[in-house]
Amino acid sequence: MKKVRTVCGDIAPERLGTTMIHEHVAINLSPVTAGSRTFFPQIKDEQLTLENRNLKFLQSGAWSMAPEVMDTSGDDYLKFIVNELKEYKAVGGEALCECSVYGILGRPYEDLVRASEESGVNIVYGVGMYRDSVRPAKFQGKSEDEIKTLFEADIDNGFEETGIKPGFLKATFSGLADGRLPFPGEMDVFRAVARISAERGMPMMVHLEVPPLSGDQILGFAELAIALGADPKKVLFCHAQSLVTSPDGRPEMIADVIKSHQPRFSIEPHQRLLDLGINISFDSFGNQAVQPFELGGANVVSEYLELSAVYELLKLGYEGQIMLGHDFCCKLSAKAYGGYGYTRVPTFVCDMLGQLGFADAAHRMITTNPAEFLAF
Ligand SMILES: [Zn+2]
């Protein structure tokens, strides 16, 4: 009998219910964003606090430089996140995937169990690695086989021997070394993850960054996962919204206003991935912390373009291979600070898709699809 493995134990897939496929309950992004401060020496510390007058400024991208916004320490944080999970539950939410893998862990694993118990929301935690640049000491200098063994120990005995077991695998492609090939360490993790998925039928997720990755490179990674034996149904490529527009930054969009007014909207890269039989997720809905990213170079598309891409793919019949989420990444994503928290998909996104004639497909993308993908 297949099960979905939550931090509180195994449950039957049909008990999972409404599930956001890519979220963070407690993520520590500070090792990743620490360097960004040096690009903006004119920004003063007092501009990076959570006082209300600064919210808009922080939401424009400054969140990534504000330690207070990303601080997940202390009992207050646990209370805060339980409240966010309760807000999610109030709009029908029942489960989510916690994607804060090695390199970006925000809390001890036991706290995820507490958050789940106190909120009544099931949490499925992933084992895997974020970018090479934040790889913890335990994994440094390790080969593909050694990484695979370390991940398997977590799967069999629980994370760090806690008995709290992961429910999916995750690999990350953060970019290209020499502008050409993926970072060797990230490729090792990807191959280890794909091999475990192949051997155990365990679901695997892949984090993408576009740019610098292109649709062709991503298709190559998907083909490699399948070549390594992974069942395409157990493979999910995240952050598909970043493939909706061509990989140009803000300066290019401003410099070429005519082209910008005819958005270079494309679902072709998505179709090519979906035609391999794999899954993709659109997972930045309502995320005010990362949308219009004025201060950074990231190419984050607007929520309306993201929704348009989902709609176009539904019209083509791909409803069985798409999942949704918010990628809740810091306090500014939260209801408590004027954001949508984990509520934008169950409310606005499902309502819009319903008005477009896809109510059943919307329901399927947040219930049946995650349950089938996560069951192993
Ligand atoms: Zn994420």
TrEMBL record:
It holds the Pfam family PTE. The keyword Metal-binding applies. The keyword Signal does not apply. It comes from Gordonibacter faecis. This is Aryldialkylphosphatase. Transmembrane segments: none annotated. InterPro entries: Metal_Hydrolase, Phosphotriesterase. Keywords: Hydrolase, Metal-binding. The modification N6-carboxylysine is found at K170.
